Amino acid sequence: MLSTILVEHPWLTTVTLAALVVLGPFVGAWLVDRRRTTGVLLGLALVVLTALTLVPTSRDLERGCFVEWSVPTLGAVELVANVILFVPVVLLLGVLLRRPVVALLGASGASLLIEAVQAVVPALGRSCSTNDWVSNTIGAALGALLALVALKLHHRFSGDRGPELVSADAS
């Protein structure tokens, strides 16, 4: 159903990706000190991710796995949707842990695990693809970058000067 909507309205993926890039750092910065809210939002994002990747479909697969290497472009709706899928998860996890790189590595590993489950459980009606893993990892990298920007924004606007690198007396 979702894929049908995205094919009929391909601009939705571009608009969603742009909104995540523009709004993500500000929302993330606001969430830094709101750990419970961030955790709830992360939980919801993980439920959506799980539903979109592991809930069985009614498709019969002719072939289970595909080895292909395509870089997502704005016109490639499915690939961009796979990028988008991991951006909020890694943004939220990176802000929650305050470790965007750890969130990136965990998400890339989780994507690989999802593809492996899709490969070994054909009853899901989902095909595994290296393209999905690449797109998910690109989305995770974007989410980590947005989390890093969010943490820097929070640091800048919170009044917390952070660690002093140079003594105030040295100036």
Automatic annotation (TrEMBL):
Transmembrane segments: 12-32, 39-57, 69-94, 101-121, 133-151
Residues covered by the VanZ-like domain: 49-149
This protein's UniProt keywords: Membrane, Transmembrane, Transmembrane helix
Domain of life: Bacteria
InterPro entries, per database record: VanZ-like
Keyword Lipid metabolism in record: no
Name of the protein in its database record: VanZ-like domain-containing protein
